[in-house]
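pipeline/complex-builder :: batch 7 item 3
reading input block
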Amino acid sequence: MARWAIAIHGGAGVDPNLPEHRQEEAKRVLARCLQVGVDLLRAGAQALDVVEAVVRELETDPFFNSGRGSALTRAGTVEMEASIMDGRGRRCGAVSGVSTVKNPVSLARRVMDKSPHSYLAFDGAEKFAREQGLETVDNSYFITEDNVGMLKLAKEAGTILFDYRIPLTGADTCSALAGAADSSNHHKAGMVMNGLPISVYAPETVGCAVVDSSGACAAATSTGGLMNKMTGRIGDSPLIGSGTYACGACAVSCTGEGEAIIRCTLARDVAAVMEYKGLPLQQAVDYCVKERLDEGFAGLIAVSSDGEVAYGFNCTGMFRGCATEDGFMEVGIWE
Amino acid sequence: MGWALALHGGAGDVPRTLPPESREPRLATLRRCLDIGTAALREGRTALDVVELVVRPPLLVSSPVPLSVWCRQPRAILDPIHGQVRELEDCPHFNAGRGSVLTSDGTVEMEACVMEGATLRCGAVSGLSTVANAVSLARLVMEKTPHIYLAFDGAEAFARKQGVETKDPSHFITDHNIERLRQAKEANRVQIDYTQPMKGQNTQAPADDNSQTGTVGCVAVDAAGNLATATSTGGLVNKMPGRIGDTPLVGAGTYANALCAVSATGKGEEIIRRTVARDVAALMEHGDDALPLRDAAARVVAGAPRGTVGLVAVSRQGEVAMAHNTTAMFRACATEAGHTEVGIWTDADAAANGETVSVAL
């Protein structure tokens, strides 16, 4: 019998000055969601069911950028996307442009299980959700006051904002933005991501990668995307091979600068490097983070069919948590 | 070394009994596209321009401007979206642009992707219903937005802002595809595409439900060694509205890096889960077993269920691979060394070896 393991994330690229109480809150949410997964795994649940359940928890909690608490489009609405992949048979499901479905990851799973397709988007996805009887709510349910404020700031800055979880104070004005936003040196140091200084940017896509006691791997990722994104913009989270991937050997979920993740097909690359280069999990993760991301900033979590967990990121921090069958359990933010 | 180009008009179980009236127009289009692409490469156009070119240009169709004149014009004067895939999109015999297959609602939802190998820049679009050349919009997403992928209403809105050519949705719908949809609904099945003649005589309609011609794509390496790929499609007959296939997914149907450029066709769901285009490149990249292009392409295609995948690929060195595990793949290629090929099926020997065919310099 294989050993189970679980990794979760709440986004890569964290402001080094994130207030202590926000850090504590993040860790509490991560710990709670991790525990949901651990309890299920101890009870013998399958990897696919575990990743869905954990991501549902993360979506429902407004702290991170997925489901409720999603970043807003430039029109002030929420368009969510998610994907899920079952390492057994590499079955997959994905959705984009979801605006009323309470848990996009569950819709992605339905696409995989109950449709002849792998990926549905916008009106077609919404229609399918209703046919499947999934819980739907008004788009306003997903919108939080915090994010309405952030959208305003992003528009003023005239750039795309990943997310912003830090309470606005007098110091966080456009002058702070103006200083950092145009410095490519700042970007090289990871202090600017997607055109915004780290104090203003905080991507909090969520994801989960699991290997169960049968050795099966699965992964899922969910997000509201970029703050102030163009309507219809699709990022890496719903793209199989970019934000999410699972096969017989491992499962991966990524977060960070979506365009960078897509360009280097990050999730698939971790698995490909294990498969074709023969690297073990952590080395594969390190290799991809170091060699593949070029100018982009991102992070990822991964598990292997052998019960290992690994994570890596090339930016200032990544909200994460991991647990393995031997009792190891931790949540973290920084290096 | 040297430039090389390969293009496809879709892979599927097209029987060799395909009648001339279905075969000839497609072969003619493939030849025309090959000529356009090779002329452009000889003129020194970049790989990215060339792959986009294959889908258009109505310029050439409607007005006899000599190709050499047209290619020499500065880009600023030229309509900025020239590309080989554009030529294929305008041909109603292929499943892209005009001639796209229909959703279960009888509508057209087109998608496309371009990728530049040297920089890994890419652009993709889905859910288009009025844009004349999806591949060109994908390129604009890459060049004019901070994003990679736009879809549905957002993509249509972007198209209008960019002033690209749009048509009434009915422009893209052909009688042929209306009939295909009707048949698919009767059979209550999703088809990749369907190339059998519609006149009542065909008895194998159920057996042909896997015929997978459709999707168009082009890969090229230019004289400077730059690689590019572009793919465009209407998707699956009778697909659910909102269904996205492999074509716009970077790494699935479309991928290019510094080593190779790949465009795939076939059953989208299989191509997605196997990250087909990315895997060809991955096999060439990694470790001591780094495979040459032809072997990487053959391995990826052989690894998918029979009848589901085809692809064209070129390498930085100017090699070409065209592989499929379906009965056929509409395809053409040319290399600077002078080799050209236009074909649909594969000869018996290659078929015995798994139905792949490839061409190397």
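note: Residues 151 and 157 of chain B are 10 Å apart (CA to CA).
queue -> next item
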